[in-house]
Every structure is written in C-alpha cells, then in structure tokens.
Amino acid sequence: MLILECPCCGVLADETELAPGGEAHLKRFGPGASDDEFEGYLFMRENPRGVHFERWRHVNGCGKWFHAARDTSTLEVFGTYPAQTTEPPRDIRDRISARRPGWTWREFA
C-alpha cells in the first residue's frame, strides 16, 4: 500500500485517502498555444518504470494538492512537497540520487 505524507497538513495518508492527479511539473498551455503544444500537454506523459513525480490530492483530509516523488516499481517514496513548487526541492533530488546513482532530473521545457 502506498502511504504519503501530506505536506500541507502533515498527516500520513494511505492511497485510499488520496486521489491521483497525474504527472507533476507539466507546462500548461492556454489560449494562443499551437496545436502541437496543446497536443503535447494533453497526451504526452511520462510513464516511467522508476522515479516519477506525481500530483496527489488529500481528498479525505485537508483537500489540498501536493506533489510526490516516488519509485513506480518499488513504491518507495522519496518525499512530498507543496503543489506550488515548480521543481522538486534539492533535498528530495539528493535523496533520489543517493538511492539511484546516475539518476538525473528531467528538465521540463
């Protein structure tokens, strides 16, 4: 079972209290975007085996959105942080690098 700590209220919640929101750190395109940019936003998602950054909502708690860094193969959680953060905090990236040598942060365009 996946257990994440909500960084907003500090509660350790299992996946039944949470709602997944897809990949984190996507660049959203609005009016004036090209068809290719909008198509990429809608349909082009990472689905890695390994380290992944996801959006979650603490539905049966504070109701706030947050991001989680975890390994999709092992369910190992590297950390959670507020959804307003534009990239994972340095301590989470360092924790991932220590556990997964050779891992690099994917730059989002």
TrEMBL record:
Lineage, broadest ranks: Bacteria, Pseudomonadati, Pseudomonadota, Alphaproteobacteria, Rhodobacterales
One Pfam family this sequence matches: SoxD
Origin species: Lutimaribacter pacificus
Transmembrane segments: none
Entry's Gene Ontology molecular function annotations: sarcosine oxidase activity
Name of this protein: Sarcosine oxidase subunit delta
One of the GO BP terms on file: tetrahydrofolate metabolic process
Stretch forming the signal peptide: none
Record-linked InterPro entries: SoxD, SoxD_sf
Source organism superkingdom: Bacteria
